[in-house]
Amino acid sequence: MMSFEKTKISLIKALKLKNTHVLTLHGPWGTGKTHLWREIKAELEERKEASTTYLSCMTYNSISLLKSATMTALLSQSTGIARYGEKAGKLVVGLLNTKLPKEMQITVGFSDIQPLLPLIKKSIPSPSLVVFDDIERATDLDVGDLLGFVNFLVEELDQQVLLIMNREKLSEKAGERWQQIREKVVSLEIELLASSDEYVAIGLGDINNDHFNLFKEKIELLKIKNIRAIQHMRRVYDAVSAEEIFTPSQWMELIPSIVIFVAIHTNSIPDAAEVKRTIHKGAFFDPDEEQTEEQARAHALVQNYKLGTVDSFETEILLPYLQSGHLNVATAQSYAKHMDMRAKRNGAESTAHENLMKFYWDPNIQKAQLEALITATKPHLDFLSAGTATKLANAANEAGNTKLAQEIIYDWISKNEAAIKSAAENPSYLDERDDFIELHDNIKSVIEFRHTTIHKALSVPEAIHSITSSNTTGSRQLAPFKTTTPSSIEHILRSADHVAFREIFRFFARRLNGRSSDQHFGTASNHFIEACQNIIKLDSEGRLTELIRRLAKASNVASQIGIS
């Protein structure tokens, strides 16, 4: 038998015990105390064992209002009437008058009728159970006053009372008062016990079995035992599902994000704010960076959870929905298409990789089968990367089928306009990286042509600024240095403003100080030296010469330029 069910049975049995007038059901927030009460209420009413009156204490800011609401609900058996607050007393009087003979009807307020209540016990259903919930949330109510009223209901009206609360969240003052009085008033205290399986089952309800199991796995990984948080996850799931955008298999990628971000949003995991920061940071920490205990816990949780990289689903769909309640349907539809394309690309890449592995390493494949393996990938070229297409073409060439190799490259270029455009628009794509250098010559030519068309050549000052500001040294940045001359460098120094001059001089000074490990700029650095020497020679007392002397000495390159 499940723990939740055991608690339910224990509470039902306790309600039937003689001389058990006041019971408490206690447990942490979100563990299902109110949910359990609703189940018990339904059973009691179905078997007609007791009439029930339920009130949430946090709705009332004074004991007098709670008393009025309680009596109104008892006499009317309608908690809806109790919401009228300050009018509750008048309603009670009116209800009493309907049950009293004309000569006994009263016209005074609720505070004046309490002595008469024992006379009208017969007007209140019996047996009857009054339930006070959220006691720890009712910060304006004095626990002593509440328990005094509970005692009145028991002693004067023969009511049975159930108090539902989180004892750990009582204020310090209320907690002390509770400990002082509870033994005199409370007959039995029952702790809500529930397993993680029950929390998940109650919170999620009936959903797709695969989705339920993934929700359960991730919820248990985070050790969440808060039914309200889990119910919130289900509401997010339902809200997105209602739009019928994502396929069942796509949901398997989205559910882990829903679980952890709802847990953060509802503060249902320890260090929630730090976990959120860690996720957005990418969970990467410098090993030498000193971490607080909170950061270390958050880092360990995120690493163990294996969420992956945060993308537009979290930043543009999930988080905005949690914060505003508005679902961006258009963005969700776009993301679903992106997921579909990503799945097709991953599938095509996996198939191509498997076929290439067989081509190169399977000793049992015949020559005719080798070409068939490569040919089988052609229908999927629009989902393959340029690198994979190159490998397939190389394999076709090794099999002696140059025509097939040419067809693969031609078809890839014709089917992947978006990929070519994206590569060409990236300013640093042509940097000397292995993944570009190893591409098929025809693919490289197409990308290089588009890239040159989009991105104008850099001047030396522009290249220097790009290198120093972004720490990027690619073929585009290196190109202008290959055509420098002493006179062109001299012209640059003479025409530069104060910001550019300082940046250019410091750039070349670093090259001169580390020339042995900076071979890309060797010739240009020599031209820089000649340009400086020529400026000093032509105008030894000029302002520009003065700046060169000062900066050269400060940068430790005076001897290389020939400055004593």
Topology record:
Layout: H1 3-16, E1 22-26, H2 33-46, E2 51-56, H3 63-76, H4 88-99, E3 128-133, H5 143-157, E4 160-165, H6 172-185, E5 188-191, H7 196-204, H8 209-221, H9 227-241, H10 248-265, H11 272-281, H12 293-305, H13 312-324, H14 329-361, H15 367-375, H16 386-398, H17 402-415, H18 417-425, H19 434-437, H20 441-454, H21 460-470, H22 475-478, H23 486-495, H24 498-513, H25 522-538, H26 543-554, H27 558-561
Helix pairs in contact: 1-2, 3-4, 5-6, 7-8, 7-9, 8-10, 9-10, 10-11, 10-13, 11-12, 13-14, 14-16, 16-17, 18-20, 21-24, 23-25
How does this structure look, described?
This protein has 564 residues and is mainly alpha-helical. It folds into 4 domains: 3-194, P-loop containing nucleotide triphosphate hydrolases (Rossmann fold, 3-Layer(aba) Sandwich), CATH 3.40.50; 197-327, no CATH class; 350-454, no CATH class; 462-561, no CATH class. It is built from 27 helices and 5 strands. Strands 2-3-4-1-5 form a 5-stranded parallel sheet, with helices on both faces. It starts with a helix and ends with a helix.
In short:
The protein folds into four domains: 3-194, P-loop containing nucleotide triphosphate hydrolases (Rossmann fold); 197-327, no CATH class; 350-454, no CATH class; 462-561, no CATH class.
CATH superfamily of the largest domain, by name, is: P-loop containing nucleotide triphosphate hydrolases
CATH architecture of the largest domain: 3-Layer(aba) Sandwich
Structure summary, number of beta strands: 5
Strand content: under 5%
Across the major sheet, the strand order is 2-3-4-1-5
- CATH uppermost class of the largest domain: Alpha Beta
The value of Rg in angstroms is 39 Å
Low-confidence stretches: 78-86, 106-110
**Average pLDDT, to the nearest integer?**
85
The share of residues in helices is: 55-70%
Count of alpha/pi helices: 27
Distance between the termini: 93 Å
Largest sheet: 5 strands, parallel
Helices and strands: which structural class?
Answer: mainly alpha
Number of domains: 4
User: What sort of overall outline do the alpha carbons produce when their principal axes are compared?
Assistant: elongated
**And the CATH topology of the largest domain?**
Rossmann fold
